[in-house]
Amino acid sequence: MIESQPPSPIPSQNRILLVEDDYASRTFFSEYLRYCGYQVLALSEGLNLFLHLKEFQPHVLVVDLCLPEVDGFTLIQQIRLDQDWQHLPIVVVSGYAFDADRERAEALGIQAYLIKPVRLQELVQSVAKFCAL
Fold first, then answer.
1. How far is it, in rounded angstroms, from Cα 53 to Cα 42?
2. Cis peptide before 68 (omega within 30 of 0)
3. In the chain, what are the helix, strand and coil shares in percent, each to the nearest 5?
4. CATH number of 37's domain
């Protein structure tokens, strides 16, 4: 469900890197974030994540945990070990609703954990909070 009113306009220099393997979710999230004024690079997998991080220079990473090839937990761990990206705000959007999954992601250093199905306004509020830092 798309809310009729986007939150207050966000300067277009705020870049969001979205990693989501599900086509419908990736399209839905990326189009709404663009509608709200963000620049979005949407990826279906995270194999070349560091190349995209370097080229796109995102302000926030939005990542699913269940991804092909390399899962979201592994990506988060790799990011936190990289000196250039260890402070990148990470918002997890996942169907993993168990406390153990949330706790594992939080232990890796994420900033927000949203459980699917996600309200778009909640996603945008999380992203906006970390773009303001």
1. 12
2. no
3. 40, 15, 45
4. 3.40.50.2300
Number of domains in the chain: 1
pLDDT tens figures, 83-97: 999 999 999 999 999
pTM for this predicted structure: 0.90
pLDDT in tens, 36-95: 999 999 999 999 999 999 999 999 999 999 999 999 999 999 999 999 999 999 999 999
How many CB atoms neighbour CB 73 within 10 A?
21
CA angle (13, 41, 34) in 5-degree steps: 60
Q: Hey, what's the torsion of the CAs at 19, 24, 29, 32, to 10 degrees?
A: 150
